[in-house]
Amino acid sequence: MIWRFGRMGRVPRNAAPVRLPNLQLTPPPHSHPDRPATVSHRSGAFALVASALSLAIAFGAALSPVRAQGQEIGVLPLDAAIDGDGVTLDWSRVKRPHAGDAQVARRPLATGGPWLFLSTDLGEAKSFRDNKASPGIAWEYKVRRVRDGIVDQGYFAAAIDLPAIDRRGLVLLVEEAGLSNHIGPELDGFAADLVGDGWRVERLTGTSARRLTPVGELAAARELRDRLSARYKAWTEDAAREGDATVAVILVGDLPLVKSGRVAPDGHEPQPTATDLFYADVDGDWPSVGGTSGLLAPSRLPGNGIEMMLGRIDFSVSRLQGPSREIAYLIDYFTRNHAWRSGQWGDLRNAYLGSASHLAVEGHGLATIVGPDNVTPGEHHDVGEERRWLFGVDFGDYDGKTYLTRYAAKPVFAINFGSHKQRIDKMLNPMAGIMAAPNQALAVAWGARPAWQLHGMALGETIGAAQLRTANNRGMSNGTPDYAPTGRYRIVDPIWLNLLGDPTLHAFPVRPPSELTVTPQDGGSQLNWRASDDPELRGYRVYRARTPEAARNGAFEVISPDLISSTAFLDPAPVANGRYMVRALALKHVHAGSIEILSQGIRARE
Hints:
- By secondary structure, this protein is α/β, with parallel strands linked by helices.
- It has a domain at about 515-605: Immunoglobulin-like (Sandwich).
- Helices cover about 20% and strands about 30% of the residues.
- The chain is built from ten helices and 29 strands.
- Strands 1, 2, 5, 6, 8, 9, 24, 25, 27, 28 and 29 form an eleven-stranded mixed beta sheet that branches.
- This is Fibronectin type-III domain-containing protein.
- InterPro entries: Ig-like_fold.
């Protein structure tokens, strides 16, 4: 197969944008006042601020400073102390800590259901103690302060001894046709890592977009979407699904990428935007604009939002030296992905934040995940290169080429905000750039418009769960999104909320055991392994799949009746051709509480 990069032609912009009246915006002060405003890699950021005066997004009046019932909503950074008896929320670090009449509400994190108000009139309080936060449940808190027409609001996730997740759901792993000829072992290893993290895996092949016309690319995308939607419905409608109904889509390689609407979330000229949420939306109506453009019409998410988390692992837009370089980027990415999952980089508890005025919501999310004292002011291209980080949130350079020739940012998860970066179809895109070696990011988003709701990651949620929470942050009865503010502007149903990288990744990896052996004997099958060296280790779980094919697809069931403290287990009733997996379990004490996390599973050599 001959590998050719890029896409054919330039699509016309023939869908009329909906413009808003001019917004009077004041550029914020530089987030680092000791640095001159002429730092070269910031030029894209300042261009974005300057162009905000003509910001046009096809949301009608939805784009405005976030308001609820006539009141502006600002960010209220929360902190918390969690012990075995409850959760103490604290907002004393913020400016005017006593201002506003405080209200506190709570709900289970995963439900997205109605809020239960714990207190509606705390006066000018600066903290609140919840003594009824039952252990074993991921709780989500909202604190809201109101005074003189000003509202500030914040969120925190907390848990006490949250149980580990054995079964995470289904991954639909879509590989570009022909890609396995170049990176077959890496794709096999990646699928095995997904299985080892508790996912069922179905592998699909998708049409390569390298030689398609715009119309042909749209047709191929619709065909792939139909297949993904059918698999989603079959999985979620299965009555046997118990807590693992989540579906994740991972696109690997240059698969069809559609464009839709006329939007300008970065404040520049409205134009059709690349969107992978087309695939993640199972039942929404995405009509085309017709003709030969291959464009879709919606400028906002149709229907009820998205049902599946979705990430794209593709370096076809980040090449410098032809096909061999793209393949090298992919091989390096999957090597790094395995290293993170298996704890080789450690259990990172640090983050850096630049451009805090634009990215305040994401900054609060970082503080929830690692604690406010572990969030360092800094940028992708200075502090971000000093060592490995769990998370980095910043503008970053606007020039994607420089990521491949000049920089080596080292966050696992990244927000790379700035002009044009959300256009993931463009060559040398900076979001893909910060994932390409020597950079180290494994999942990258474009934040701030709207802001990503990251606080669930403090309890081990995946970055894909944050994508779902952000994309589906829709209006409540008073017209305010469920999570507010959504950044500087009220933005709902964003079709450009793409995630590059692996959506199934999460924080707080556990060091796995190693060297599993299975020995048949009279009393059954004897399993032995080498211990995990994780400092918060509690024990092990043993799993069995009934056939080799079931093992490859992730159909493992727990067979150890209790947590095993030793490094040996006897299966008294083995099955012919059965396959085993062992995972270490640790009780991680994180900033948001205490949570059980399982390691990657190890399997015996076959």
